[in-house]
């Protein structure tokens, strides 16, 4: 069975974006970009891969699922297929239809994730965000890869926007970087 991995950046106080969804509060740290390019190249958007000298094959994921708020910045920039090197799903009840044939808009994320997990593949599924979608999919998340940035936001979009739902994960690995950032990998217990 394929795994669903929530690969996300967070502030010290646990936010994945500003209150308006802006992610520019996260600094462009060379060591974290290097980690992503080397270990998770598929998480770098297609239109930025050349700029960051990423031409590596996908290592972990062949599919990405994201909420509309996560997808919206790409649309605002005129990019309708931000991860053309992956199969792309956007969860939205308001988007209407897909602006690109390579992006499928869905309204039932749990059913879709269960269907994707049942597929025969050596690659996993990347949950790119946002907090509401992660909260809805918490029962299906198998792994967390968290990029901890040395920033305090004070308020914003939480990593999981859900009700009280304690869910145990165990630390599998953590690496600290000279910039003060860290990357932690957790597996569901």
Give your account of this protein's structure:
This protein is of the alpha/beta class and 189 residues long. The chain is 21% helix and 29% strand. The protein contains five helices and ten strands, in the order ββααβαββαβαββββ. The chain has helices spanning 30-39, 46-49, 68-76, 109-117, 131-137, and strands at 4-10, 15-17, 61-67, 87-91, 103-106, 124-129, 143-148, 157-158, 169-176, 182-188. The strands form two sheets. An eight-stranded mixed sheet has the order 5-4-3-6-1-7-10-9. The chain has a two-stranded antiparallel sheet with strand order 2-8. Helix 3 (68-76) links the parallel strand 3 (61-67) and strand 4. The longest helix is centred in the N-terminal third of the chain and has 10 residues, at 30-39. It is globular, with a radius of gyration of 16 Å. The mean pLDDT is 96. Residues 4-172 form the Bacterial bifunctional deaminase-reductase C-terminal domain. InterPro entries: DHFR-like_dom_sf (IPR024072), RibDG_C (IPR002734), Riboflavin_Biosynth_HTPR (IPR050765). It comes from Rhodococcus tibetensis. This is Dihydrofolate reductase family protein.
